[in-house]
Write a structure and sequence with these properties.
Region (Disordered): 1-23
GO molecular function: hydrolase activity
Strand content: 15-25%
Keywords: Hydrolase
Number of helices: 8
Domain Dienelactone hydrolase: 26-138
CATH topology: Rossmann fold
Strand order of the largest sheet: 1-2-4-3-5-6-7-8
Helix content: 25-40%
InterPro entries: AB_hydrolase_fold, Dienelactn_hydro
Shape: globular
Distance between the termini: 37 Å
Order of helices and strands: EEEHEHHEHEHHEHEH
Radius of gyration: 16 Å
Structural class: alpha/beta
C-alpha cells in the first residue's frame, strides 16, 4: 500500500510544463513542494500534518520518486538530472528558476477554486526559495521557506543569493512592504542555507519572520523534523489563511 493511496492524483500544465500533483483535505489551500530526492515518505507525512490541521494540500511531484525514502543513493540518482534541467537554476545568481511560472500557476488555480484571502506555499531545501518566487503572484499570501538552498552555496555570492531575478525581487519587496510576511526556518548551523537569511532580513525587514533552530540538522519539517518548526508553520498558515 502506498502512502499516496489516500491522495487524489492529478496534473497541472502551463507554458508547456506538466507535472503530477497529489491532493488531500479541505479548507484553505496550501501548496507543499518537496525536496531532493523527491516526494518522500517524510514529505508526505508532513503533508498529512497540514491536512489534519484543516487545509487543502496540493503536493506537486517535480522530480525523483514518489513515496520513496531519503537515501544517499536516491539523492545521487536525481541530483545530476536537476543540475542540467532547464526548469531549475542551481548555480546562477540573480535569476528565478523557470519552474516558478508553473508553481505560480498552480497556486493561482487553487486560489481561484477555493477562494479566501489566498493560499499558502512551502518549499524545502532545493525548492526552499520557490515559495518566495511564488509570492510574486498575489494569490500567495503565506509563503514559507524551509532551509532554502538554491543557488547552491558555493562561494559568498551564491550563498547570499535569493534565487530571484531583480524584477521578481522588487515585486517581493513591494508585497512585503504592503504587509505580506514571509516565514523562514533553518537550523542555525546549516551551511546549505548560506547567508541568505541575512539577505532576506536586509531586503524584507520586519516582514521576514526568521526562525533559527538550534542544532546541526537540515530538513526542518521532514528528515530532521522540529516540532517547533512544524508548529510555527501551521500557526502561520492558520493566521494568514483563516485568521
Amino acid at each position: 500500500m502506498s502512502l499516496l493511496d489516500s491522495w487524489t492524483r492529478g496534473e497541472h500544465s502551463t507554458d508547456g510544463m506538466t507535472h503530477p500533483t497529489y491532493r488531500k483535505g479541505s479548507g484553505p489551500g496550501v501548496v507543499v513542494i518537496h525536496e531532493i530526492p523527491g516526494l518522500t515518505d517524510k514529505v508526505i507525512g508532513f503533508g498529512e500534518e497540514v491536512v489534519a490541521a484543516g487545509f487543502t494540500v496540493v503536493m506537486p511531484h517535480l522530480f525523483g520518486d514518489a513515496a520513496g525514502s531519503m537515501s544517499a543513493g536516491a539523492v545521487a540518482k536525481v541530483l545530476p538530472k536537476l543540475c542540467v534541467s532547464r526548469e531549475f537554476t542551481v548555480l546562477a545568481t540573480g535569476e528565478t528558476s523557470p519552474i516558478a511560472a508553473w508553481t505560480r500557476s498552480l497556486a493561482r488555480d487553487l486560489h481561484a477554486e477555493l477562494g479566501g484571502p489566498g493560499v499558502g506555499a512551502l518549499g524545502m531545501c532545493f525548492t526552499g526559495g520557490f515559495a518566495l518566487a511564488m509570492m510574486v503572484d498575489s494569490s500567495v499570501v503565506a509563503p514559507v521557506l524551509c532551509q532554502p538552498s538554491l543557488p547552491f552555496a558555493v562561494g559568498r555570492a551564491r550563498g547570499a543569493d535569493l534565487n530571484l531575478s531583480p524584477a521578481d525581487l522588487a515585486t517581493v519587496k513591494e508585497r512585503a512592504a504592503g504587509g505580506c510576511e514571509v516565514l523562514g526556518l533553518r537550523y542555525r548551523k546549516d551551511g546549505a542555507v548560506g547567508t541568505r537569511f541575512d539577505t532576506l532580513s536586509r531586503e524584507l525587514g520586519g516582514a521576514f519572520l526568521r526562525v533559527d533552530l538550534e542544532g546541526k540538522g537540515h530538513s526542518t519539517v521532514t528528515e530532521h523534523r522540529s516540532p517547533e518548526a512544524v508548529a510555527r508553520v501551521l500557526g502561520f498558515f492558520e493566521e494568514k489563511l483563516r485568521g
